[in-house]
Amino acid sequence: MATRTAAEPARAPASTRQQAAQRLARPARLRYATVTVALVIALVVVGCFAVTVGPAGVSLADVVSSVSHHLGVPGVASPPLLTDSIVWQLRMPRVLTAAAVGAGLAISGSVMQSITRNPLADPYLLGVSSGASLGAVAVLVLGISFALPPAAFVGAFLALIATLSIARTGGSLSTGRAVLAGLAIAQLCAAGTSFVIFWSAKGDSYRDILNWLLGSLAGSTWDTTLISVAALIIVGGLIIVLAPRLDAFAFGDTAASALGINVTATRWLFLGAVAVLTGAMVSVSGAIGFVGLILPHIVRGFSGPSHRRLLPAAALAGATFLVIADTAARTVFDPRELPVGIITAFIGVPVFIVLIKRRRIA
Amino acid sequence: MSVLIDDVSREIDGRRILDSIRAELDDGTVTGVLGPNGAGKSTLLRVIAGIDRPTSGRVLLDADDVHAMRRRDAAQRIALLEQSAELATELTVIDVVLLGRIPHRRGLLGSFDSGDDRAIALRALDSVGAAEFAARSWHSLSGGERQRVQIARALAQEPRMLLLDEPTNHLDVSAQLSLLAHVRKLGLTSVAAIHDLNLAAAYCDKLIVLSAGALVAAGTPTEVLTPELIRRVYGTESDVIRHPRHGGPLVVYAMEGAAMDGAVSVQRDRLADHAQTPQPSRA
């Protein structure tokens, strides 16, 4: 073998070289397709399993009949009332909200990392989550918890507008300034949140507030499902449709412009879309950490850098991950329920360390 | 593609970065942009590429104003090689070259790399002798290899004009020479900001010299590179002699305060002999 290799000419003819390069450079389409299909199956399986798990035992058959009954499939009898309400009123909305929030955060994180060219970027970089927290805590303290999602969303949106108006100079928008402005606004909102808690929170509102600040899906209802799924489909869909433009930012703004991208308009568009998507997710679940930070890095490993491939796969992985994490949050320490943000941090930090060690990051 | 830089000025916060630049670049020629740091070389390239807008004046590609075009149309005609291209994520070489196809993609379905795009990218890689790198990670390449891949990326863009911002920075001598020789061979209208006057003299058809944003000289290397101009623009004393191989101008700096070792060696007619301990007495 060794002699044969040595006997080969130093440079193969051009056609052979191109073939070799072609073989090497062929995209891992098959692998991507396989993993994506596997993720879809995983999400469905995990989702079904998650609905059956909990303090009250529910069988898969109960789940199927309850869901079919509510979807109006003819000839399906509803399961017993208690089982039905556990499945339909408690667990279904919670699992669906978890999936939508996980998907939204993973998309947001991927976009933020690409557009800021910072592997440590996460969906909360522009102060969105802190603004949402301030809005939510204010409402919780006032004791009008039904208004929580709208208040959180308004908080997120105001924080975003403050961040972007600080960052913009003469119509153009620098990413570096946006990140710094986001930091300032986040600090301000955090101080405001602490102030509100310190001043007027009492007894049981502390628990709600803590839940919310750490990120929790315990408050999921069909309303939160509607908000998160709608945001995911409309804003997440828009982002995925426009995703190819993000590819051009690999070498920075000048390179993107030289590749025919209108940099300022594109950046406004994506930062705005990410803020709305994140704001919607934060408004239903609080700021759940690490989903938007870690999953994009893991998914890039098999999707490659193309955002048309990265974003849908990241969404599926984020959804599956958060459904698993939330199921663990509400069952592992039964009857106590942990805020899911604690679970995602416990899983996310070691994964992050592994990624640093393997140099996927930095 | 011929280019007319028509009285272009650019101001930022009231400071003139470019001051009424006029120049004509003929089709298929290589033009070198010279000038000290901060003279406006990069800005001029960015204005020609349509990335930065001039405060006044215009840049015509053939007859079309580059700043009136859609960015994508401009990107189909002009490729820009930046001074230092830093990559934040993991990309393979072929991924980097495929970026050059972005301006040519159309519509929603055109957002994936087609087989054609791949073929074009691989041809571009092969033409710079980098086909073997295709599957390697960008981060594993040396400076010279990266510049070759960037050229391939620019070629995959199928431009009619190539703009290069200090393309020879950080390259060793042989990589500098082969890169510029390659650019010449492409036959594209090219503009390169270059620091090394002798590289510029050897590989450019025309030179333009900027100083504090203003055009101070333009013409063939022989016309432009004179001891007076070099003194005026760089404040450096020099002699300009005939290059022994190609006959063009060769700038030899006076180099006040240089080590005398060279002079001693020349006297002994043994340029390569460094065995001798340097004399302690120096000028």
What does this structure look like?
By secondary structure, chain A is mainly α. Chain A has helices at residues 2-7, 14-25, 29-52, 60-70, 81-116, 128-142, 148-167, 175-200, 203-214, 222-242, 244-247, 253-258, 263-285, 291-303, 307-331, 340-357, and strands at residues 168-169, 172-173. Chain A has one domain (45-357): Orthogonal Bundle (ABC transporter involved in vitamin B12 uptake, BtuC), CATH 1.10.3470.10. In chain A, strands 1-2 form a two-stranded antiparallel sheet. Chain A is globular. Chain A starts with a helix and ends in a 5-residue tail after the last helix. In chain A, 49% of the residues are buried. The model of chain A is unreliable at 1-12 (pLDDT under 50). With 283 residues, chain B is an alpha/beta fold. Chain B folds into 2 domains: 3-236, P-loop containing nucleotide triphosphate hydrolases (Rossmann fold); 237-283, no CATH class. In chain B, strands 6-7-8-3-9-10 form a 6-stranded mixed β-sheet, with helices on both faces. In chain B, strands 2-1-4-5 form a 4-stranded antiparallel β-sheet, with helices on one face. Chain B is globular, with a radius of gyration of 21 Å.
